[in-house]
Amino acid sequence: MLAHAIHIKEEDINSIKERGASIAHNPIANTKGATGVAPAIKIDQAGIRMGLGTDGPMSSNTMNVFGTMGYAARAYHKQPNE
Length: 82
Description:
This protein is mainly alpha-helical. It has one domain. The chain contains 5 helices and 3 strands, in the order E-H-E-H-H-E-H-H. Strands 1-2-3 form a 3-stranded parallel β-sheet. Strand 1 (2-3), helix 1 and strand 2 form a beta-alpha-beta unit. The chain starts with a strand and ends in a 5-residue tail after the last helix.
């Protein structure tokens, strides 16, 4: 399992898929820390298993996975389909 996966490239996505790995996606923590955001749409389109996490109150100010789910849905709804 990869945590965050915010700086992955296309070849990384292919490698992750080939190895059957999964990703823990923490969009609020990554946005708050200004570290980047995982390319969740590309990861999903590649068929890679991806879980949703809060990363805890110190990095995202929440442990509410349903709020994080809503945040992720709104953030990725605005991205153009690739």
